[in-house]
Each structure stands twice: as structure tokens, then as C-alpha cells.
Write a structure and sequence with these properties.
Elements (H helix, E strand, L loop, with lengths): L2 E9 L9 E9 L3 E5 L6 H8 L9 E3 L2 E5 L10 H8 L5 H9 L17 H13 L4 E6 L7 H12 L4 E4 L3 H5 L4 E5 L4 E5 L2 H45 L13 H33 L22 E12 L2 E12 L3 E5 L6 H8 L7 E6 L5 E4 L9 H8 L3 H10 L16 H14 L4 E5 L7 H14 L3 E4 L3 H7 L2 E4 L4
Parallel strand pairs: 3-7, 3-8, 5-6, 6-7, 12-16, 12-17, 14-15, 15-16
Antiparallel strand pairs: 1-2, 1-4, 8-9, 10-11, 10-13
């Protein structure tokens, strides 16, 4: 059975003092369906690029397979999917691509359309089919769900479940559970491989964290007792040393026998102190070996405003157009205080257009969208594209710097990342900055457009707990099935025209 072996990998980007990997080692079989899990900024994409040769490995990677990376850039987006697949197929076996794409629930018409005109989800399916059509290649699949709607995620998860030989980066729990049989995780202190899906990995992680926390509490109590014993032993030893020579209690000079007695007592006390100190140091060293992989996921807070009107949005028979093209028609819904409403539907059905209509970027061509008087909105856009200095971003957003950075620290931002230009942050870290800004804003309504794109699993769970606890009024565009189910969100499915 072929294996991929990574041995003693150490890597840092040129000019950066921060090590992404420090003497990392692991091995995986090439027929595993491997889910790749880590918090944002831990090096998931970096590792995939090292594996496929885009970044230097200095001999740390050994593999008997050829790697392909998803997503890849299409040199000529004006070409059709059939033409793109033909360019990639050196053996001229176009039927393989047609076989793969037929399993991905796509319309036949897209095969003859320019790639650039396809939706993000359709493009993702074309790229996956083209890569899997190549025989004897091992796929490195980097976050395919970011452009897939809920139905698309179910289709692609089922498709991948029928494959062997890939590493998949995804933060969608249901998606991972549907298609992987092993988990590769970058933890705080090491890289680990486990058999199973995401749910089994999560349960194992919970048990390990619970064990380490309990063990840590036990050791802290023991060390406290040891320190008390050490202080007492030190006091006894010092006392014994002070009377080993010189004057006996009461002012009389000690006899030779007394001196020998006190000398032996002092020696024993000093040895006892030394033994206790050695034991305490060992216990402290053992304690420091714990909690290195414990992920900190402190609870977040939000302080929403309550609007005096119960009804915040009233939308009746709204129609949204771009030029002569109708995106949505007959859109009707009402949003009340305390509602969590999720807009779902296929790519291109108009979800983001609804948000643009609510925020005043576009106006409905027909019907009406009414917002309550004085309604304050806090918006997280779908795309980040942040640039410049973080302090300038904070200042322009009009938010409290201390609160903003506190939220980011809870979302696993290191202090060093605060000094980096925003464009140097990963896509997930940029999205966290947008979410943190929104959490700093007091609003009647929080409007978040695909907030979980690129966000790691533990941070998703933090955000999930936040919304479940505080129940702010929200309008979401989101395709994470587990997230919406846990929030008991009301779902409005939009149909493309």
C-alpha cells in the first residue's frame, strides 16, 4: 500500500520569524479519504502547497503518487468545461470527464458554456470532475464548499464518499461526516492522524481535553501540597542547620554528642528538602506536558439592541432585476424581533441580492421592502478583501479597539497577527475580523452573508453558541446544515428565475 510520509518538516515563509511547521512528522495511506482539520492560520493550505511542490519541503516529503490541487486556475476561462477537460487529458479519454461530471448533478448545458459564465458551485464541480478524471493522481482538495449551496454540498459529499485517495480541507461538519474515513488534524502542539469521521474525532478530542483538564486540576492540588511540604521541610532544615553548631537552646554550649546529633538531623532535613524539590520539579514538568493541545474556545458575547417595533422587515411581492434579467420575483417574508431567518437556495438564486436590497445598495424593481423606522443594521459581507492597517480598519469602523481585539483573541488570533497588514491574513482570519467588527456593533438586526466561509470548525462552534445564547435578530445567508439546525433557524428557500 502506497504511503505519503512527512518527516521532520520545518517551514517558515521568507522574511517571517514565525515557524508554520516545526519538526512535524506524520504518515498517511494513499487510499484514505482524509479530512484535514485545523484552526485558521495553522497552515492547512501551506501544507497542501508543500505536498504538491509549490513550496519547498527540503526533502521532508516522500510520496509515490502525483498530487493535484483543487482549486486550480483555468488558463482560458472562455473555454467550455469540455475543452478544459480535453486540455488536461493527455490520453484523450474524454469519456472519463463525462462520467465524473454526470455524478455531480449538473445540467448538460453547462458543458458547452464558457467556464467564466458558470456559477461558483458549477465551476467547483467542473474542476473536481476534471481532476478525478485523471488516473493515478492524489487530490488535495482545499475548501470546496465555499462556493456550494446546501444541495451542492450534499451532492459533492456523496460523490467524494465514493472515491479513494484525497486530502480534504473543509469546515462543514455534515459534509465531512458524509465522505471521510480518517482525520488529519493540526493541533496546538502536534499533527495527529485518527481513523474515523469528524464526529468520532470530535468525541475523542472532547474526551482527551476532559482528561487533561481533570489531570491538570489534580496536579495543581498536588503541587500546592508539595510546595507547602517543601516550605515546611525548608524551615525544619534551616532550623536544624542553625543549631548544628554554636549555642544550644537555653544558652549552653553544645556537647560533641549534641553536635553530631544535630548534624545528622540537619543532613536528613536537607536531603528531605532536596527530595521534595526534585519531586515537585518533576510534577511541574509533567503538568506542563498537559494542556498543550487543549483548544481555547472561550464564549463570545454580543449586546443587540431591541427595536420598539416588533416587525423589523416587511417584504411583499418584491422583484429584483439586473438590467433585463429578473433575479427574484414575488419575494414575500416578514422578520420580527428575535427571529433568525436563513436564506438558502442554489447559487445565483438572489440571496446576496436580497441583502443588497435591505441595505439600500439596490432597489426592488417591483413590490416593496419596508424596514422599521430607525432600524440599525450590522452587516458582514460575503467577500472580505481587506487591506491596510488593522488599527485604521478599527478606526474607520468606529468600534472599540480593546473589545475588537479581545474577540479576535477568543477566535484564536495571536497577538503577532494584530501587527500584520490585513491582506497578509488568511481568508478565514479576514472573515473573523469582519465578524468581530459586527459583534462590536450594537444593532437591532445583524445581516450576515455566508459568515462561515473559510471559518474553522472550533470558531464556527463558538459563533453558534453565541447566537444560541443571546438570540440576536438575524438574517443570514448560510449553507452549513448543522449550524442552521443547531440554531433552530427559520429557513426561507429562494428559487432562481
Amino acid at each position: 500500500m502506497a504511503r505519503i510520509q512527512v518527516s521532520h518538516l520545518t517551514f517558515a515563509y521568507e522574511g517571517s520569524p514565525d515557524l508554520i511547521f516545526d519538526d512535524a512528522s506524520f504518515a498517511v495511506d494513499t487510499d484514505w479519504k482524509l479530512g484535514f482539520i485545523a484552526r485558521n492560520g495553522r497552515g492547512k493550505t501551506t501544507l497542501l502547497k508543500i505536498l504538491c511542490g509549490e513550496l519547498p519541503d527540503h526533502g521532508a516529503v516522500s510520496a509515490s503518487v502525483q498530487f493535484d490541487y483543487f482549486p486550480f486556475s483555468v488558463p482560458d476561462p472562455s473555454k467550455t468545461p469540455l475543452e478544459i477537460a480535453a486540455d488536461m487529458d493527455a490520453e484523450g479519454q474524454a469519456w472519463r470527464f463525462l462520467k465524473e461530471i454526470s455524478c455531480l448533478d449538473t445540467e448538460d448545458e453547462i458543458l458547452s458554456q464558457p467556464f467564466s459564465t458558470l456559477s461558483g458551485g458549477e465551476q467547483a464541480k467542473v474542476l473536481l470532475a476534471a481532476l478525478f478524471a485523471r488516473e493515478h493522481h492524489f487530490l488535495l482538495i482545499d475548501e470546496p464548499t465555499n462556493h456550494l449551496d446546501m444541495r451542492g454540498r450534499e451532492v459533492v459529499s456523496r460523490y467524494l464518499n465514493g472515491k479513494k485517495g484525497f486530502i480534504l480541507v473543509s469546515h462543514d461538519r455534515a459534509f465531512l461526516d458524509g465522505c471521510i474515513d480518517h482525520v488529519l488534524s493540526i493541533n496546538r502542539a502536534n499533527i495527529e492522524v485518527q481513523k474515523g469521521n469528524f464526529s468520532s474525532w470530535e468525541e475523542n478530542k472532547r474526551r482527551q481535553d476532559e482528561f487533561e483538564l481533570n489531570e491538570n486540576e489534580r496536579l495543581k492540588k498536588e503541587i500546592s501540597s508539595l510546595k507547602a511540604s517543601a516550605r515546611q521541610a525548608s524551615a525544619w532544615a534551616d532550623h536544624a542547620e542553625s543549631v548544628k553548631i554554636g549555642i544550644r537552646p537555653g544558652g549552653r554550649e553544645k556537647s560533641l554528642d549534641a553536635r553530631a546529633y544535630y548534624g545528622e538531623k540537619s543532613r536528613r532535613m536537607q536531603q528531605r528538602r532536596k527530595n521534595l524539590e526534585t519531586r515537585m520539579e518533576k510534577e511541574i514538568e509533567e503538568k506542563e506536558g498537559l494542556l498543550k493541545n487543549l483548544e481555547r474556545a472561550d464564549d463570545l458575547k454580543i449586546f443587540p439592541l431591541t427595536h420598539p417595533s416588533g416587525r423589523l422587515i416587511s417584504c411583499r411581492d418584491a422583484e429584483i432585476r439586473y438590467g433585463d434579467r429578473t433575479i427574484l420575483s414575488s419575494l414575500t417574508f416578514t422578520l420580527f424581533n428575535g427571529d433568525i431567518l436563513a436564506l438558502t437556495g442554489k447559487n445565483g438564486c438572489g440571496k446576496t441580492s436580497v441583502i443588497k436590497a435591505l441595505t439600500g445598495e439596490i432597489a426592488p424593481a417591483a413590490g416593496e421592502i419596508r424596514l422599521a423606522s430607525g432600524l440599525i443594521l450590522s452587516v458582514v459581507p460575503q467577500q472580505a478583501h481587506l487591506r491596510g492597517d488593522m488599527r485604521a480598519f478599527i478606526r474607520e469602523s468606529g468600534i472599540d479597539e480593546t473589545l475588537f481585539k479581545t474577540i479576535l483573541r477568543k477566535l484564536d488570533f495571536s497577538r503577532e497577527q494584530f501587527d500584520k497588514p490585513l491582506e497578509a491574513l488568511s481568508a478565514g482570519q479576514q472573515k473573523k475580523a469582519l465578524i468581530a467588527r459586527s459583534l462590536c456593533q450594537q444593532a437591532h438586526l445583524y445581516v450576515w452573508d455566508e459568515p462561515l466561509n473559510y471559518i474553522d470548525l472550533l470558531s464556527r462552534m463558538q459563533i453558534e453558541r453565541l447566537i444560541a445564547q443571546f438570540r440576536p435578530t438575524m438574517l443570514l445567508v448560510e449553507h452549513d446544515k448543522t449550524f442552521l439546525e443547531h440554531l433552530n433557524a427559520r429557513v426561507l428557500r429562494l428559487d432562481a428565475k
